[in-house]
Amino acid sequence: VYIFYRAPKDSFNRWLMERKSIDRGIDPLLPSQCFPEVSPSMFREIMNDIPIKIVKPIFTGAARKQLSQYAEAAKISLRVVQHQLVNVSHISWRRVRESVETLCKKVYHISVEHVRRIRERHVQLLSESGIHEPPLVPHPPPIARKVWCYPVQFMIPSPRMPVVEYIQDRDHMVIKYSQTSQSQPDTQYINHTHLQKLEQLYRFSCYDDKKFELFIGRVFCVLKRYQTFLCNTSPASQEAELTQASLPVTVFECLNRHFGVTFECFASPLNCYFRQYCSAFSDTDTYFGSRGPFLDFKPISGSFQVHPPYCEELIDATLQHIDKLLTESSEPLRSKVNVKSVHGTMVFWLQNNAGFSRWNPTDSRVEALLEAFRPGRERERDKIPQAEPTNSSQPTPEATTAEVNMMLNKKERKRKF
Length: 417
What we know:
Blueprint: E1 2-4, H1 11-20, H2 40-49, H3 60-74, E2 79-82, H4 93-128, E3 165-168, E4 172-177, E5 186-191, H5 192-205, H6 215-229, H7 249-259, E6 263-264, H8 282-285, E7 302-306, H9 312-328, E8 333-341, E9 344-351, H10 353-358, H11 363-373, H12 377-382, H13 401-409
Parallel strand pairs: 6-7, 7-8
Antiparallel strand pairs: 1-2, 3-4, 4-5, 8-9
Helix pairs in contact: 1-2, 2-4, 7-11
Protein name: PCIF1 WW domain-containing protein
GO molecular function, one term: mRNA (2'-O-methyladenosine-N6-)-methyltransferase activity
Organism: Lutzomyia longipalpis (Sand fly)
């Protein structure tokens, strides 16, 4: 008897997030050094949805009939568990569990093999460009002093990027990358609003390409990475930014005004509000201001907004990381955590004593935040004329977050490629 199963929506993303929360490998996307090898999230989803778990058949014919009905109703297309069954009344759930565990390990080992191949190709590309990676040496102990938080900087220069073609349309840009191994070019789309935003982030954060010669190629890499991560391969919705969700603008404005928030701990170049943020992929996002993954980020002072994706293991790792940061720092440190649930969005303030003294969540501040979350508040805000910044030059580190954000959201700006 074959048990069929179709993966639930976004299950691959949750598997990646759960694996990366414990992964110690070198690839930014695929896991390669995880313990245990069996993913708890993948194991739970498969075991909860195996059709044979739903019924308690007495005869083989009844079991086959119910499995067939389940497959027809769910339109299942992917076989994930193969179990030889002679007598349905003697089903061994232990053997089913072992089969599912074997499947989870197989998926993980496939990921490890892909990471190995990607690494080999990475080293080959660097060698062709005359770039050699420095040997791995132990990091020196950190210096106990406060410094400005800057985007991730690479130890080695960027290799020469392949040529990409781009076509300006009325409301979007089409970016094409042609590979010799494929007959059709790989095409990405981005609307002009997001493109202008990426241009400003690139201007603020990129230090090795002041002439914007590599800008379009790096935009393509960002779009391709998030399209791959989100499994967004439908021709009808190829724009990667359409899948990026965030909090309303009114909430960010309230957090900045009343709680001093200037940093997002879970964002991307496509959906960030502040120009300081953490994202999942530092290799592609650092040119646009990313400070790297949040679990590797260790601030000692500041006010942060934390809105993790809904993944139980990632949320648990995030809360443990925040607790450790608050315990080790005597500087004002505060995190405002949003967690989605079936009843809506829950908000928590996690802060040390110094952070509480500086950003105390008083009744008036909490009321202002609730008002910012009110449905329709963002539409009311859009009707109010917004003042344009008078200076369009690159802001200094002392520039206010509101000024920076107005520059990021400015829609009409000359572009140089």
